[in-house]
Each structure stands twice: as structure tokens, then as C-alpha cells.
Amino acid sequence: MRRFFTVIILCALFYSCKPGIPKDIIQPNKMENVLYDIHVIDGYSATLSFPNMDSAKKVIAPFYKGVYKKHGIDSALYNRSLDYYYKNPKLMKLMYDHVTEKLIKAKDKAAPKAIPEVPKVDSAKVKDSIKLASKAVAVKPIAVKLDTVKAVKLKAVKTKTPARLKVIKAKKANK
Questions:
Q1: Which residues have C-beta within 8 Å of that of residue 48, sequence separation ≥ 6?
Q2: pLDDT per position as a tens digit, 150-171
Q3: Which residues, other chains included, contact 167 with Cβ-Cβ below 8 Å and sequence gap of 6+?
Q4: Where are the domains of the chain?
Q5: Cα 112 from Cα 120, distance rounded (Å)
Q6: Are 157 and 167 in contact (CB under 8 A)?
Q7: In 10 A of CB 143, how many CB atoms?
Q8: How far is CA 128 from CA 101, 119, 135, 153, in A?
Q9: How many CB atoms lie within 10 A of CB 34?
Q10: Roughly what angle, to the nearest 10 degrees, separates helices 150-158 and 162-174?
């Protein structure tokens, strides 16, 4: 009976001493989300230009506080958790692999889609003017005898021009 209790106590000690993440440390899934948000803020702050580091810290501090509030933690718990994960590099690497994947997905989602290239206005004008010039060259000037009105009237009837309308009106007036 004594051996039975000894074996049970040893088993209980063995299973209770398994390495795990302490309860006063942010759990890995939640820490991944916190690190993701922190890195997004760091990326945003890198795009801003500040005259000195003190200005940058003052501007970015409310963003960090917003992340802490969003996740229900404070800066002390965050720093304590970060220290714990620095001491456990396998866990830290695993978390950062997931954070990196999330950041890449967010970057791909935010990247602008390929927009087809629109020709410049100047090149469109040049192409249009070339078409107009080629049409102008293809049209041959009409030779009209000055002494005959019939030639002008026939030309106006064959082409649909305002001169044709004048001929039609003239015919109606003569009737």
C-alpha cells in the first residue's frame, strides 16, 4: 500500500511539473495578436517624420495604450511577457512566424491592384492629329469653274453639306 501511494505521488509530481506558460504571462495566441498590432504601429511611426525621438514617443504612446486597452493588458504585463518569450526562443520564433504571416497577408491585401496603363493625353493628341493629317492629305480639293453655277449645285447635291440645303430651298422657292 505504501508503494502504491508513493507511485501516485510521483506521478502527480511528474505531471504537475510539466513546463508550461505561467498564468501571469500573456498566452501565445493573444501575444501574437498584440505583437501584430505593435508592429503595425511601429510601421506607421516609421512613415512619419519627427524632428527628434522625444516627439515620436509622444505621438506614438497613445497608439500603444490603445493596443494595451484593446487586448486588456498593461505595459508591465506586456514587458514581462516579452521578457519571458525572449528567454524561450522556440516559442518566440513560433509566434513571430505567425505574426510575419499575418503582416504579409495584410500587406498583400492593402497593396494596390495592377491598374492598366492609360496612355498619356499628349500621345493621344499626337495620334489623333496624325489621323487628321492623313485624312486631310487623302481629300483632294475640288476644282470648280467660276463661270458655271451648275457645277457648284451638283457638287452640293452629291455631298451632304449646308450648300445642298441651300439648293433644296432654292428649288422649293422656284416652284
A1: 56, 59
A2: 555 555 455 555 555 565 666 6
A3: 153, 156, 157
A4: 20-110, 141-175
A5: 21
A6: yes
A7: 6
A8: 50, 13, 11, 33
A9: 21
A10: 120
Calculated CA dihedral for residues 38, 51, 62, 107, nearest 10 degrees: -30
The separation between CA 106 and the C-alpha centre of its own chain, rounded to angstroms, equals: 10
pTM of the model: 0.55
Query: Exposed, middle or buried, 90 (CB in 10 Å: 0-12/13-18/19+)?
Result: exposed
pLDDT over threshold 60, residue 4: yes
3-state secondary structure the chain: CHHHHHHHHHHHHHHHCCCCCCCCCCCHHHHHHHHHHHHHHHHHHHHCCCCCHHHHHHHHHHHHHHHHHHHCCCHHHHHHHHHHHHHCHHHHHHHHHHHHHHHHHHHHHHCCCCCCCCCCHHHHHHHHHHHHHHHHHHCCCCCCCCCCCHHHHHHHHHCCCHHHHHHHHHHHHHC
**pLDDT: which is higher, 68 or 147:** 68
Q: pLDDT tens digits, residue range 66-95?
A: 999 999 999 999 999 999 999 999 999 999
User: Cβ(26)–Cβ(49) under 8 Å?
Assistant: no
pLDDT for 122 equals 57
